[in-house]
Amino acid sequence: MIHTENSTIDCVDAGAGPALLFLPGSYSTPAAWRPMQRLLPAGYRQVGTSLLGYGGSSETRTAEDTGIAHEVRLVETLARQVGEPLHLVGHSYGATVALAAAIAGRVQVASLALFEAGPLALMREQGHEDLYQAMLRMSLDFASAVAQGERDAPRRIIDYWGGDGSFAAMPDAVQGYCWQTAASNVLDWRSVFGFGVTLADLGRLRMPVLLVRGANANPAMLALTDALRSGIAHARCQVVAGAGHFLISSHPAECAGVLSSFLAEVA
Questions:
Q1: Which CATH superfamily is domain 2-119+198-266 in?
Q2: Sign of the torsion formed by the C-alpha atoms of 153, 154, 157 and 162
Q3: Verdict on whether the full-model pTM lies above 0.85
Q4: What is the DSSP letter of 59?
Q5: Nearest-angstrom CA–CA distance, 243 and 255
Q6: What are the distances in angstroms from CA 221 to CA 24, 117, 188, 225?
Q7: 85, 98, 186, 260: most buried, per Cβ within 10 A?
Q8: What residues contact residue 34 under an 8 Å CB cut-off, 6+ apart?
Q9: Integer Cα distance of 227 and 125 in angstroms
Q10: Where do runs of H (alpha helix) occur along the chain?
């Protein structure tokens, strides 16, 4: 755990070698990466964290200030603790935060490995206004459900990414945690909708980038991955067969293999 003047940040640090910083998605903690991490070869320093409002990481955003810069500052704090350069590995919202940190340029990022990243502004720039508006409506309906105290409000998000029935299939304890942290997920959506990344921003990235999506990704993720691949000069894309949005949990061996191959080239 890292303690700053006004907050705490989860920090799980193990191993030695090139530093990998794992950023989980919404509703997640460092535990989300463990099935994959156990399958990675030795020789890396593996650092895990929780994003704002999850696990032991304090929520620093407010309804009036949801800028993704809050999350970028978390990454920068961890970078000072761990040392640089960092290989950033992110899933879902965590992958979008990793991308935002790389674009901000205040952390020396050796490489990016982005599993189902969702920088939503790219959909509009690429002409997918229908997908963008559908996701916006879904996120607003979710925020309204949270405000009204609907205990299964997170189902709207989990099933959007994972397919109908995904939330119901989760253990009761996991469903309960999703509800406990739903207010932070509302802020996550506001943060990512406010992240005005452009193809020009992507074009300035010079580090190696790995893009990974599931073969069963929904149409929005297909569009987002295509946009990232077209905008990043040094990007390569891998598709995990049989996987959907939660691929790091459902297909850890395949994801670990893809990441291991990438790191063997760039780390």
A1: Alpha/Beta hydrolase fold, catalytic domain (3.40.50.1820)
A2: negative
A3: yes
A4: P
A5: 10
A6: 17, 8, 17, 6
A7: 98
A8: none
A9: 9
A10: 34-37, 69-82, 93-104, 121-125, 129-147, 154-162, 172-180, 182-193, 199-203, 219-231, 247-250, 252-266
